[in-house]
TrEMBL record:
This is CBS domain-containing protein. Gene3D superfamilies: CBS-domain. PANTHER family: CBS DOMAIN-CONTAINING PROTEIN CBSX2, CHLOROPLASTIC, CBS DOMAIN-CONTAINING PROTEIN YHCV. The keyword Mitochondrion does not apply. The lineage of its organism: Bacteria, Bacillati, Actinomycetota, Actinomycetes, Kitasatosporales. The keyword Repeat applies. PROSITE patterns: CBS (PS51371). Residues 8-65, 74-132 form the CBS domain. It comes from the Bacteria. CDD domains: CBS_pair_HRP1_like. Keywords: CBS domain, Repeat.
Amino acid sequence: MTTAGEIMHPGAECVGEYDTLADAARTMRERGVGALPICGDDQKLLGILTDRDIVLKCVAEGLDPNRVRAVDLAIGRPMVIEEDEDAEQVLRIMEQHLVRRLPVINHPDHKLVGMISEADIARHMPQERVAEFVTTICAEKD
């Protein structure tokens, strides 16, 4: 059985809840990633911030990314998976909730230990299952 911990990108770096979107965008550029987990001062996961969020929910709305904080875009509770869960469960969660990135937490501390992206899935899962996953994730909503 392949686990979430085996396919994840370890050591996910958080953007702080009070960091600006401009700071988050610079971190994304430096790390070569399109999303960062948003963590509180207590390292609790508050959400996921994507480059698309910055563009559509800040820049396109005429807001200043030097003033808007990451926590302002942390809406709802993020989906997560524990690192010892089966990789097939990772795919089911991502497909069910139509998410392209999934934070991985450890047990029992529930601390962020990594992230799983579409690229991680493509590298570690059978080709047929990757094709099914991509079809589901990319399907247009009714």
